Amino acid sequence: MTIELPQELIEEILDHMDFESLKSGSLVCRAWVFRARSHLFHKITLLPDIVVVFRDLLSTPGCTFAEHIRSVHAVRQEWSLNNPVFDEIAAGLGGVLELNLSLDCQANAHAFYCTGFIASFPHVARLTLTFDIRPDRVPLLEIISLFPAFGHISLDPPSGVVPPRGMRRIGISTRDLVGPILAWLMKSNHLPNMDCVVLPMLRHTDIPTVRLSMQQLGPALRHLSIDLSWLLPDVDPETIFDLALHPHLETLSIYDWPSPSIDFDPNALFRLVTRLPASNLERISLEIDLDVLYYQQLDWAAFAAFFSATRFPSLRSITVKCCRHSNHGDNDHEFLRASLSLLLASGMLRTEW
């Protein structure tokens, strides 16, 4: 007896196959080919020593896998003899939505970084850039303007270079670039459009810029992640990050790992968080150095009571990640759970190391 499954059920099965099974499945029948290839060729890696082979495959009559490629990780080196091949294959990768580029060029930087391959992906929604040279030698703003995502920028933006209109999320991983990026977004009046902002630890020289930029973020902001590490004792995080200005936040992450060499005020974190007016808040994550010597005197009960269902009806989880002190054993976790018993009882509290 022959059983004929609906195509949608077949596709659901293919969606859950591993890579080897997909390769076999793509050879079963024509009805399986498209869905299997959409997984097999979803993400590709292009290295200088294999890009020629890829070009030859791409130019083969009847090639059909290119339409399935959505994510590309490319490593380009100016001195590689195969470097020009990247420009040759760009036209065949029009469906790419995610681009991860590792780039190294010492000379003729503008042509390498702003033309050809790198400028051929106008629909990319997620961009990761890695440079093997100093960022100030790269025309970073020009690169960013090619995509609806961004990496690094220079201090003095060239005239006419503005953020892509559709850019709604920024994630900055290098502290030296926080000031320049935010200054550029402020100058372009783009900050009110941002939906998500992720910031690393700050340089103290960038605090005025960060403070002004946080004030310009508009009601569109839904997701915020900030790092309070290594702030000097005379810097109150409330004066930089006024959470009262962001009433529509849905997720908030705070990393707070004070230096043992400075006088730390643990109440500063409590004051910062308890200014949050966001009734739409769904998740909050605190990653802290939970040393009982710092935190045992705080009013944890009041902190837990602040996150009541009345104030935050959409809140689903509060995650506290804390370091493990070898001399404390499990005392920190026991202390935390006892101190936040109200949240623990509600089922919202998550504790991690």
From TrEMBL:
It comes from the Eukaryota. Transmembrane segments: none annotated. Coiled coil: none annotated. Residues 1-44 form the F-box domain. Signal peptide: none annotated. SUPFAM superfamilies: F-box domain. Pfam families: F-box. This is F-box domain-containing protein. It comes from Mycena albidolilacea.
